[in-house]
Amino acid sequence: MREHVDRLGAEHPPIPLDSADFTMKRPDLLVSRFGATLAYMTRVELEVERNVLELNLLLPDPPPVDKYFYDDVWGPQEIHHGLLLDRMQTLAGLPVSAPNVDKIDFQLKLLGALAHLSPIQDISRMLYYLTGVATEKSAILAYNLLYKGLLDLGEKAVASTIIAPIRRQEPGHFAYYKIAAIGLWNDMAPWQKWLTRLLRKQSFEVVGAYNRRQRAEFGGVMEDIGITADGDIGIQKYAQQVGQVEMELLWAQKQGLQLPTYVLDSFRSAFRLFRRSSR
Ligand SMILES: [Fe+2]
Ligand SMILES: [Fe+2]
């Protein structure tokens, strides 16, 4: 694990902010096609700052390698993703992002208090890894689609000097969480696995959404980047990829189930909310 993190840190330093070429041919068109997507992704990347505070609360006594990963490698990389996207969107004419970087949800505080008990902390840690897996997979897929979308608009500069370098850093994050999740799952007692399944089912959320409005916004992102171009089939394919690791880990005993229902349900519901709010 440590080697993986060493390698990520060495091969992927935070993207230098002056390495980006912010030239946009038609910023107005770019905003009308992908403005909402850019704003959403910028916020989620910048909120990593709060995620690190939450982690310190949730995992008062984390394995050193986790702390090393999120403090020294993951955090700085994601913040630069956010700063680059924020600069791009403001240059395109959108408002500066207003992420929530310090307000922590009450439920998390409660879980944080319980996390001082080590068997409980293992469960929090498992949920953190699972969220990481789903979040990073969502990011990889979204950046792939956004990259193609920007090229289709002829916006080569921003696609290749901003979106492409960002998307190159996400698979390493995904791999970290996946390896960590598999390792911890295999060490868990049956009651911990049971509780993890229960909590995961209840707390799964589409990436970056903490309320109804944000859920609807994510539904809009799904439409703008083309996930829903083929209707529900597209949502199913997307959910399948996002939920694959936890399907194989948490629900392996459920014969015939293709993906966890709660994963598909939350993507469908985000899209429905968006449709309703945009009419
Ligand atoms: Fe990122
Ligand atoms: Fe990431």
From TrEMBL:
This is GTP-binding protein LepA. It comes from the Bacteria.
